[in-house]
Design brief:
single chain, 844 residues, alpha+beta, Topoisomerase II, domain 5, Gyrase A, domain 2, Neuraminidase, four-stranded mixed sheet, four-stranded antiparallel sheet, 19 helices
């Protein structure tokens, strides 16, 4: 094998360049990026079109597929565009054609499609061989006067044909139809607008070039989406117009329809570019996952007349809350405005005013070039008409001169020499027919000459005066507006900020009832009118056979509660999430509200809004400026076996939906009660056998959630703790004790002297056959109300002042008439809102 190198031409070495790889890569990437930016992804600020859209429309124009012609196969249009102008695949060309035909994508569609061009559900268009298209009337306005040298042309990809670099665009299409695209390192997302508003703003800019964006917004209220819907607030729109960037909240349009089985939320308009079928699927998923509650059915009843998605609610569900949850999760979308377009071939983010200024500059150039073109044609025609008039004035001599000439060339020469005609005039006269020499033809020529002369004067006036030229632009814009403008579709709604579910629910006192069969409901407290003590009360719930009331507590609809169970776990409950029902209703399954285990019952409830800790209530529930923000707070717990534990409230942040451990319990022990203390309180433990012990809470050191606690009360025999109540030194309040057979009493706290913990305590109330065991222990004061409910569902409400105030070691008085075989399930104390209002007035 020869070792000689192959022959290499001498000039090859001269053509080889040494370059750095990193520099070559950088420059090549920049070239590629600019090619994508300018040649594919970004629209031109002048006509608002990307190259593919411009080429499709121009190909249709060249093929005479106008709004007045018959529809043509889409594959034909795509083929012409691809073969002559757009050297890319047929799929992106057809996708662009489809989008221009979709009335839910384009505010003013540029293509009139026939066939399946997709849907708002995300369904794709049919194959291009099955659909037909033609230009829509408004798209012809983009190409008006293109044959009059109004725009520059460039060679197509193979130098066979010429194509326009931009269309004349008789209206500001970039704003009217918007645009979106992703280039290399940048993207554009321009919303569509109302044609009439944009044209009015353009005219305002022409009349007042010093106007501001705010002035233009007097005309352009904001984006006008083809799918209508609502824009939330106007401040974001202003920012987008002033800076070229912004984030708009677009909200679906819906209304509430009342029905016998519950209300329905009916969605009739969707945010721009929202997939309807996907929206329905996601709402269904949220309902299935428990993120949306109170919904029983979801139907898509949309047809060709418009969108109609029906969300049916459960009977008794709070419509305002479900509506708010839908708004937060599914019925609002953010539209990010990036007003990026090509200006002189370079990408630039534009304000509203800058966008319109670029368009006006483009139209100024188009009208100027058109006027120059029309003037040249008019002057040429006037020159010919002058020759014809001159020939008619010497008709006999002209005819004789032509007849006496040997041929046409000789006739032309003779005419030029004898009558001083120009070459163009002579050629025209030689071609004239004898019929045009009649007197009627002569009058028509004179009339045409006068018209052409007037046209020349008008065109010269336009070209000589900037004001006249701009007046023409305004008149043409008004003509487009008169022909195509329509009513605004997208409305504005007030931005009320983040509306919480509580904001939508009236704040009122309610009674929450939970049964052993896991039925739960809430009833307005005012449903139960205050009665005198000793009555049987009224029916408070309808129980199934063998079901019993397990828990009753009072709260406000705006409260966030910590619900402690007998098994030592704690859950968070939003009271408004508990369905409101009538007092005789059974309630709804508690599974989706409180995920309690079998044999797990609520034994104590603490209002989380009163605790200074994030993660228990909403972020705005705790007031950082309140006095409690500087104080220690503890949850003090008592178990049935007499153990007491204090835990800092900060241990209870971020409570899971499945609950968290509040206290560790020994086998057979249960959590009896929980109260909030501040580190300076006493606590009173009461037992089922009527004993009570009071001691300083600091006798119990703070412990973690997993701790068991220390002995708080020395119980005798089978005795168990019934409850715990807070007390302060020199407390003038009373201790309310109620037994299972409906007897109770109030005793001043001063009668319970402090002792050391783990003592037997003092006799609080006499128990026995008449009273039964103690079921409830609460600290009360005048003005409070008591709600007591029996296991069978009887309920009574009374002012606490109805219960006699007596000393310790007494039997007390009848609080509620409990029938034989029935027992009190729970007792709850609350201060009615009206009492709080009265106290506030007294303070003033």
């Amino acid at each position: 094998m020869s070792s000689e190198s192959p022959d290499v031409p001498d000039d090859v070495a001269d053509r080889v360049k040494n370059v750095r790889v990193d520099e070559e890569m950088e420059q090549s990437y920049i070239d590629y990026a600019m090619s994508v930016i300018a040649g594919r992804a970004l629209p031109d600020v002048r006509d608002g079109l990307k190259p593919v859209h411009r080429r499709i429309l121009y190909a249709m124009h060249e093929a005479n597929i106008t709004s007045g012609s018959s529809h043509r196969k889409s594959s034909n249009i795509v083929g012409d565009t691809m073969g002559d102008y757009h050297p890319h695949g047929d799929s992106p060309i057809y996708d662009a054609l489809v989008r221009m035909a979709q009335d839910f994508s384009m505010r003013y569609p540029l293509v009139d499609g026939q066939g399946n061009f997709g849907s708002v559900d995300g369904d794709p268009a049919a194959a291009m061989r099955y659909t037909e298209a033609r230009m829509s009337p408004i798209s012809e306005e983009l190409l008006t006067d293109i044959e009059k040298d109004t725009v520059d042309y460039q060679s197509n990809y193979d130098d066979r044909l010429m194509e326009p670099t931009v269309l004349p665009s008789a209206f500001p299409n970039l704003l009217v139809n918007g645009s979106s695209g992703i280039a290399v390192g940048m993207s554009t997302n321009i919303p569509p607008h109302n044609l009439g508003e944009v044209i009015d703003a353009t005219i305002e800019l022409i009349d007042n070039p010093e106007c501001t964006v705010v002035d233009l917004m007097e005309h352009v209220k904001g984006p006008d989406f083809p799918t209508a819907a609502n824009i939330v607030g106007r401040s974001d729109v202003k920012e987008a117009y002033q800076t070229g960037r912004g984030r708009l909240r677009v909200r679906a349009e819906y209304h509430i329809e009342e029905g016998s089985n519950g209300d329905s939320i009916v969605i009739t308009e969707l945010p721009y570019q929202q997939n309807k079928s996907r929206l329905v699927e996601r709402i269904a998923d949220d309902v299935r996952d428990g993120k949306l509650e109170g919904i029983t059915d979801l139907r898509d009843e949309s047809d060709r007349n418009g969108v109609r998605v029906v969300v049916e609610l459960k009977r008794g569900a709070n419509t305002d809350v479900v509506e708010n949850q839908l708004l937060e999760s599914r019925l609002e979308r953010t539209f990010s405005v990036i007003n990026l377009a090509l200006v002189d071939g370079q990408p630039k983010v534009l304000t509203l005013k800058e966008t319109l200024e670029e368009y006006v500059s483009h139209r100024r150039e188009v009208v100027r070039r058109r006027s120059e073109h029309d003037l040249a044609e008019a002057e040429d025609r006037a020159h010919i008409l002058e020759g014809r008039l001159k020939a008619l004035d010497h008709v006999d001599e002209v005819v004789d001169t032509i007849q006496n000439s040997e041929d046409r060339d000789a006739a032309k020469a003779a005419l030029r020499e004898t009558f001083d005609f120009t070459q163009e005039q002579a050629e025209h006269i030689v071609r004239m027919q004898l019929g045009s020499l009649t007197s009627m033809e002569s009058a028509e020529i004179e009339e045409e000459y006068e018209d052409v002369t007037a046209t020349i004067e008008r065109l010269e006036e336009i070209l000589a005066s900037e004001d006249e030229l701009m007046s023409v632009i305004k008149d043409e814009l008004r003509e487009v507006k008169d022909e195509y403008a329509d009513e605004r579709r997208t409305s504005f709604v007030e931005d009320t900020g983040n509306v919480t579910d509580e904001d939508l629910i009236p704040e009122e006192d309610v009674v929450v009832v939970l049964s052993e069969g896991d039925y739960i409901k809430r009833v307005p407290a005012e449903t139960f009118k205050p009665q005198h003590r000793g009555g049987k009360g009224i029916i408070g719930t309808d129980l199934k056979d063998e079901d019993r009331v397990s828990t009753v507590f009072t709260a406000s609809t705006h409260d966030y509660l910590l619900c402690f169970t007998n098994q030592g776990r704690v859950y968070r409950l939003k009271v408004y999430q508990v369905p409101e029902m009538s007092r005789t209703a059974r309630g709804t399954s508690a599974v989706n509200i409180l995920n309690l285990d079998d044999d797990e019952e609520i034994s104590a409830v603490v209002t989380a809004d009163d605790l200074d800790i994030d993660g228990i209530a909403d972020d705005d529930a705790a007031d950082p400026d309140s006095d409690s923000a500087e104080e220690d707070e503890f949850l003090t717990m008592a178990t049935r076996d007499g153990y007491v534990k204090r835990t800092d409230v900060t241990e209870f942040s971020n409570i899971l939906s499945t609950g968290i451990i509040a206290i560790s319990l020994e086998d057979g022990d249960e959590l009896a009660d929980v109260v909030v203390t501040d580190g300076e309180s006493d606590v009173v433990l009461g037992s089922e056998n009527g004993m009570a012990i009071r001691f300083d809470e600091n006798d119990v050191r703070p412990m973690g959630r997993n701790a068991r606690g220390v002995r708080g009360m020395d119980l005798e025999g089978e005795d168990r703790v019934a409850g715990i109540a807070p007390a302060r030194p020199d407390d003038d309040r009373s201790l309310l004790t109620v037994t299972e057979y409906g007897y109770g009493k109030r005793t001043p706290l001063s009668e319970y002297r402090p002792q050391s913990r783990n003592g037997k305590g003092l006799v609080d109330i006499k128990t026995g056959d008449r009273n039964g065991d103690v079921v409830s222990l609460d600290t009360v004061e005048s003005g409070d109300h008591v709600v007591a409910m029996s296991e069978s569902g009887q309920i009574i409400r009374m002012p606490v002042d109805e219960v006699s105030s007596v000393g310790r070691n007494t039997k007390g008085v009848k609080v509620m008439g409990v029938e034989e075989g029935d027992e009190l399930a729970a007792v709850s104390v609350f201060t009615p809102k009206e009492n709080e209002d009265d106290e506030a007035e007294d303070d003033e």
